[in-house]
Amino acid sequence: PSIVIDSTTGTFTITVGNSITKDRGTLTIAKTLSNPNGATVPASYTVNYNCGLDTDGTTALTGSRTIAVGTPATVSGIPTGNTCSVTEVAPTPIPGYTWGTVTYTPPSIVIGSTTGTFTITVGNSITRDRGSLVLAKSLTGGPGGPAAYTGPFTIHWDCGTFGSGNATVSLGSPVTIPNIP
Predict the structure, then answer these.
(1) 151 alpha carbon, distance to own chain's centre
(2) Can you tell me the distance from the alpha carbon of 25 to that of 6, in angstroms, rounded to the nearest whole number?
(3) Distance between CA atoms of 169 and 150, rounded to whole angstroms?
(4) pLDDT tens, 28-46?
């Protein structure tokens, strides 16, 4: 704008107004999963985020996103300089499998600019539960007492799709078949 000064004794004022807003960036939440035993896992997972307070100092920048492996979710509008962290809602237990400890890489991240990539990766692992079968032989009674029958003895075992076989067992010397799902 302009102003015309038509007097040498008057006061003339020009008001200039500027506005400024806080730069805002975006958090990306990614998901990885290690599933070497082929468990039937959920298609998506819920992750809560906490990016501190908004510029008013009272509004919490928190919430949740649903993410899938290979399909990250974003949270936009986070003031630059704010630190974000995430926590995953524990996945539903799957019978016969155990979820590993969840990892967050990095544990937190600062939103450093309006255009940068600021990603926290949530990692899970799930493995098949495994146990062992112990085969042992004991004897009681019989002609000559138990000492007359020391073995060895052949015991056939069958654990379905895991496998089957024969084990040779002697009195006092059990055999262990490990890693059975």
Answers:
(1) 51
(2) 49
(3) 10
(4) 999 999 999 999 999 999 9
Torsional sign, CA 147, 149, 152, 155: negative
State the pairing for strand pair 24-34/118-128: parallel
- Is 32 within 8 Å of 70 (Cβ atoms)? no
Residue reference for tokens 């024969």: 166
Fill in the amino acid letter for 78: I
Cβ atoms of 38 and 52 closer than 8 Å: no
pLDDT one-digit tens code per residue, 84-136: 999 999 999 999 999 999 999 999 999 999 998 899 999 999 999 988 889 88
Q: What's the burial of 91, exposed, middle or buried (CB within 10 Å: 0-12/13-18/19+)?
A: middle
Query: How far is the C-alpha of 69 from the C-alpha of 33, rounded, in Å?
Result: 7
Helices (H), ranges, the chain: none
Q: Which two tokens stand for residue 24?
A: 């805002």
Angle formed at CA 17 by CA 13 and CA 18, multiple of 5 degrees: 150
